[in-house]
Prior knowledge:
Strand content: 5-15%
Order of helices and strands: HHEHHEHEEHH
CATH class: Alpha Beta
Helix content: 40-55%
Amino acid sequence: MRTRAISLGLIFSITTLFAAPPSADEVIAQAKSKAAAEKKAIFLHFGASWCGWCKRLDAFLERPEIKTSFQKYFVPVKLVTQENEQNKSLENSGAEAWAKKVGGPGGLPYSAFLDANGELIVNSRRPMPTGDGNNIGHPVAPEEVDWFLTMMKKAAPQMVADDVKVIETALRAQKK
């Protein structure tokens, strides 16, 4: 009996390990529900396992001081897309359609702020005098940081100056 219980536990663990990630629609639906309940905007970013800048953005968002300030105003959501053949199983089905819906990607990482209904507020294509500009990716250059701060303020106008400053200081201190 003990062997059977261990076997079933192992099968469950393996099945869970290899289960497909949730679809983009499922992830967005959960984020919309949470954003509506908490009166927040959604920070949607797209990335892939092969993307170094995506990993930098993920690490930045996980820094304790950033996470604390950021999550006061936003529900962060990551969708995996554009994976290579060996990592296709990591993708959220429908992520590419969501990327197009919010104006991207134009390179990874790509990000957008959405309202609680899932409607686009602003995306990471920095406007240029000739129209939509390039995707800022993970903001490091001064003009990229400036645009990211503008994006945050558009998505969460109630964001207090101290929280903006924490994020801005960390972004401006980064090295390329």
